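Protocol step 4 of 6: structure prediction from sequence.
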Amino acid sequence: MPQLQNRDWIARQQAKIEAGVAEVERRHVRGPCYEGGNFGLADIAVGCMLGYLDLRMPEFAWRDHAPGLDLLFTALSQRASFRATVPVAQAIASVA
């Protein structure tokens, strides 16, 4: 119910998400993988985070603020393991 949502609280959460993406972008070592070496857990975690943002917050244009992560996510999205596990929205039945 929109009338029960606290806009200030939502704005604070949005700011946390934006700051988190900015920090992940800042720490990104440019290269084929997040840490610049071999594919590892950091790549999986960052790829899952960005895929989740695309699914749940499509209005958040994180790519505009994190070009390095955009390149990384594009590369990760070409991996068979990522293609096979793309998150999809689930239909949630309303409770009457």
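Step 5 (inspection) to follow. The first helix runs from residue 7 to 27.
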